[in-house]
Amino acid sequence: MTAIERLCGFLSILTGVLLLPSISLSQPVAFPKGCLDCHGSEPKYPVRGIRTQYLTSGHRTLGNASYANSDDCQGCHTNEGFVERVKKGKVDTKKFVSNPSEIGCFTCHAPHDTGNFSLRRVADVTLANGVAFDKEKGNLCASCHQARRMPKDEVRARNIPTDSWGAHHGPQSDMLLGTNAYEFPGKKYSKSAHSALPPANCITCHMTLPSGRYSLAPAIGGHSFRIEGEVHEEPKVNTAGCLSCHADMKQVAGKPLFDKKAAADYDGDGKIETVQEEMQGLYERLINNQGTGLLQTMKDPPYDAKGKFINNKTQYPIEVVAALYNYKFVKEDGSKGIHNTAYAVQLLMDSIKALDKNFDDSKRPQ
Ligand code: HEC
Ligand code: HEC
Ligand code: HEC
Ligand code: HEC
Ligand code: HEC
Ligand code: HEC
Predict the structure, then answer these.
(1) Which residue's alpha carbon is at the smallest distance from atom 22 of ligand 4?
(2) CB neighbours of 82 closer than 8 A, spacing ≥ 6?
(3) Which atom of ligand 4 is nearest to the CA of 65?
(4) Which of 41, 101, 215, 267 has the fewest CB atoms below 10 angstroms from its CB?
(5) Could you report the per-residue pLDDT of 188-219, keeping only the tens digit for each?
(6) What is the pTM of this model?
(7) The domain containing residue 105 runs over which residues?
(8) Domain's final residue, options 114, 141, 176
(9) Do 305 and 350 lie in a common domain?
(10) Rounded to the nearest whole angstrom, what is the distance from the C-alpha of residue 110 to the centroid of ligand 1?
């Protein structure tokens, strides 16, 4: 026997002795200790509860990951594309992800690489028009929830090619900063206090959980990322994220609205309502369910009486294209004016005025 063979024999006996007890089925599974922080019976991180919330989130349920999976879509719509984008700074637009998965735990965190739930991406973000977005951990959200286009490329006398034409569904970061919508020449645009305050960010408002019991459903706050939902079949808005700045923020009883009155009667219906109701009134001047909106009643309208897009080849003048661009920008922001009241109201009032010279815009915020 050579020295090497003797050593190997010794090692094989040693490993046998060491391994045998651990493969005996009567022994408990020797799960590496590090895993228990997340996968144990009493984990350090509340992974199971957070998963319950996440399962209700649009990230999990809206299901566009398989569809929006080429060009540059995969960089925002798929887990794999986002991980690639963070690593390389861009995605390969000629490729697609062969087995795409929806945005999930491993998109925003890298728990198996880091052993914790630090965020995969926190650096500041440059929006499509070059403006910097830098709001603490909200930068993670902003890296996907931003306009993909600029009015200078889209808004001119032209036809409207498709129903999905516009800034692209999620321009929340641009809205929050008050930038990158169509600003009518000769008008001044301002911003709400939210735009400059770093803690007024996506995470504070959308993810803060209330501190009491019996307060919410898994589909509101935390990893549902939603602010509005239902608790025991009653509409509920989560004020927990507002309270650090608006100590008296409440919900309007029985309605999915924040009780924050607008500074003026923007929609001109004779009463000063909450910001969200004034916004609703402004939307309805452009498109509504009765078919009386300006974009439904003009010559060759782009929307029918039911609010459905009409795919016509009409060459519209710039005012119509601009009004529609802004309508979509504000509507698809989804916050009904909360992200940035001043900017949202100004955009809609100017768009309405461009289509209806008789509209009273004397209450326009300065
Ligand atoms: C910092 C937290 C964390 C640690 C530590 C951790 N995991 Fe995980 N693990 C997760 C999360 C989060 C998921 C996804 C859970 C979900 O989808 O709900 C996961 C999922 C898994 C899965 C399912 C496969 C998959 O890709 O979804 C396996 C298997 C797994 N972990 C094994 C381990 C093992 C083995 C260890 C230790 C070596 C470990 N994990 C350590 C957080 C952790
Ligand atoms: C910069 C990131 C980003 C890119 C790139 C992107 N999207 Fe999106 N997309 C979003 C976000 C964010 C939402 C969700 C917005 C919301 O619900 O407020 C969304 C929503 C959608 C929706 C759902 C619309 C609805 O109303 O239900 C579709 C469909 C979609 N995107 C398709 C695409 C396609 C196709 C591409 C590529 C041509 C693409 N997206 C590229 C970020 C992106
Ligand atoms: C869209 C992005 C996103 C997704 C998807 C996501 N998270 Fe998070 N998660 C966050 C953000 C942002 C925070 C930080 C919240 C804060 O600091 O207030 C966070 C915080 C956490 C924390 C708290 C960390 C701590 O130290 O207290 C845990 C635990 C966690 N996430 C687990 C999960 C699990 C499990 C999943 C999947 C079921 C998941 N996350 C999916 C964005 C995400
Ligand atoms: C990797 C890109 C990405 C990141 C990061 C991200 N989102 Fe999203 N988010 C999306 C996309 C894409 C959708 C739409 C999913 C679909 O249509 O399949 C979406 C949907 C949503 C929705 C549901 C919208 C609806 O119409 O129901 C909310 C709310 C939301 N995101 C908030 C956030 C917040 C808050 C953060 C930061 C904590 C965040 N997102 C981080 C890409 C992202
Ligand atoms: C000042 C608090 C606040 C901040 C900051 C904030 N949001 Fe919102 N957001 C809201 C409120 C309130 C709504 C309206 C919720 C409702 O009524 O459905 C909303 C709506 C949304 C929606 C539409 C939800 C839906 O169900 O259609 C998305 C997506 C969203 N916000 C993402 C973001 C992102 C991304 C950021 C950061 C760039 C952000 N928000 C910053 C308060 C905030
Ligand atoms: C980091 C601090 C901060 C947070 C968090 C915050 N806000 Fe604000 N918000 C302000 C300040 C400051 C103002 C300007 C003073 C005022 O109007 O109260 C403001 C103004 C507003 C306005 C504009 C009113 C107008 O007419 O211009 C609305 C609407 C609003 N907040 C709603 C909310 C809601 C709803 C939440 C929670 C979902 C929230 N805010 C979270 C700081 C914050």
Answers:
(1) 58
(2) 75, 76, 103, 107, 120, 144
(3) 18
(4) 41
(5) 999 999 999 999 999 999 999 988 776 779 99
(6) 0.94
(7) 64-114
(8) 114
(9) yes
(10) 10
